[in-house]
Write a structure and sequence with these properties.
7-stranded parallel β-sheet, 14% strand, globular, 13 strands, alpha/beta
Length: 429
């Protein structure tokens, strides 16, 4: 099966790439990375651990004109909602005169706790919109049904990284400490520097209170390296601002989350999807309440899990386990949650005469004040065609213009990934 994955960040590449592995025993996976602030670096791609057959990088307008899409069986769209809606419009235009096209699959890389209706309507028009749990499937179908979108497009699965891992064993051999506590960092939660300094300080404090424990700060990206969300205050840089020596049993760690969880006895986070991974394995998990249980932090999503606790609770030795009924409703304990998806894709591929035309939810009839700007920001006209300046093979694009664009990209990445972190250090972080 030829599966193409479009991703605008490392997180969405991980989601799309792992999802592709669940669709077929021997998938041929082709990665398409969108140019932007969060385009995955080689290091980030390697960390995910999925090696695609090919990798291309392009704009939205260039992507929808890629000739290889005509040969794809499935296209997994892993991007923000606005970009997903633009992709649907562009592909609707491209394939309007043929029914031979890939099955369009999209969804969410984590828990859906904000802008639920907004995000769903921007994904409306895909053949399949994935719901990661029974809870999500109910919500999605209710919203789509109320706005006239085909509810059959909602297919229940699970987050693809919640599979194929061994259950937690607190007596495992080879453990270097009686208890290893892992704090899973999020780039933008909490957003304020004060909150991030507080959490880091409490992690330092916990390591000093429990010298027999190992405390890991699991980092997502290196200073200046982009990810799905902007990380303004990197924890490694913030550690330099703490006027205290780093405890010898506390370590900053990069790498694959699954491998870190292999050595974890207590997962701590504000609202990272890493909590779902640890819960699925049976690892004790804490959803921090110290900065408040608030929608802006996303930890309100876990209120029924039984895992909301504070650093004081952690210091006192609390090791909470998630409630089974909550786990079941979140799809975390599902057995082979991709069977329905594989069956639905097979049904769509076998439709006599080919797939029906792509019909994005937003049109010039129902969203004339919204759609034009959304599309133009991605280089498309209101009918889904690339704007003149977005055409990848336009004769008027000179060699000098090409070279200038490449130079600007290099300069931007150098500034964001090298210069900015140094300036932050010099500024007294």
């Amino acid at each position: 099966m030829r599966i193409h994955v479009l991703a605008d960040s490392d997180t969405r590449w991980k989601w799309g790439g792992e999802l592709a592995q669940r669709l077929h025993s021997e998938p041929r996976v082709h990665a398409h990375l969108l140019n932007g602030r969060a385009t995955p670096t080689e290091r980030q791609m390697a960390e995910v651990g999925i090696e695609p057959d090919t990798v291309t990088q392009s704009t939205v307008a260039e992507f929808i004109q890629n000739p290889e899409l005509a040969h794809a069986d499935v296209l997994i769209v892993g991007s923000v909602g606005g970009t997903t809606q633009a992709i649907l419009h562009g592909l609707a235009r491209r394939f309007e005169h043929t029914r031979k096209r890939p099955v369009l699959v999209t969804g969410y890389v984590g828990v859906v706790y904000e802008n639920v209706t907004d995000g769903l309507m921007l994904r409306g028009g895909a053949d399949i919109v994935l719901a990661n749990s029974p809870f999500d499937a109910r919500r999605f179908r209710e919203i789509y049904g109320g706005l006239g979108v085909d509810t059959d497009s909602v297919v229940q699965t699970a987050l693809p990284f919640l599979a194929d891992h061994e259950a937690y064993d607190d007596t495992r051999a080879g453990a270097t400490h009686p208890v290893t506590v892992t704090f899973a960092v999020q780039p933008s939660v909490p957003k304020e520097r004060e909150g991030r300094l507080y959490i880091l300080g409490r992690a330092f404090q916990h390591a000093r209170l429990h010298p027999e424990r190992e405390v890991i700060i699991k980092l997502r990206s290196q200073p200046g390296e982009a990810t799905t969300h902007i990380e303004k205050d990197h924890y490694e840089l913030l550690a330099e601002r703490l006027e205290q020596e780093q405890p010898p049993n506390l370590h900053f760690v990069y790498g694959n989350m699954a491998e870190v969880l292999d050595r974890t006895d207590l997962m701590v986070t504000v609202s990272s999807t890493a909590a779902l991974e640890s819960m699925q394995r049976g690892i004790p998990t804490v959803i921090l309440s110290d900065c408040g249980v608030r929608e802006v932090h996303g930890n309100h999503y876990f209120t029924g899990s039984g895992c909301v606790a504070s650093w004081d609770d952690i210091d006192a030795g609390r090791l909470p386990h998630a409630r089974r009924e909550w786990l079941e409703d979140q799809g975390i304990l599902a057995k082979d949650p991709y069977e329905q998806l594989r069956r639905r894709i097979a049904e769509l591929v076998d439709i006599p005469g080919g797939l029906p035309p792509i019909k994005p939810y937003y049109t010039m009839q129902n969203a004339a004040a919204y759609l034009p700007k959304l599309l133009s920001r991605r280089g498309l006209d209101t009918d889904g065609t690339p704007l003149p300046y977005s055409e990848p093979n336009a004769q008027r694009r000179s060699l000098m213009a090409r070279a200038s664009r490449k130079a600007l990209r290099r300069a931007y990445r150098f500034g964001a990934q090298t210069v900015a972190p140094k300036i932050q250090r010099w500024g007294g972080l």
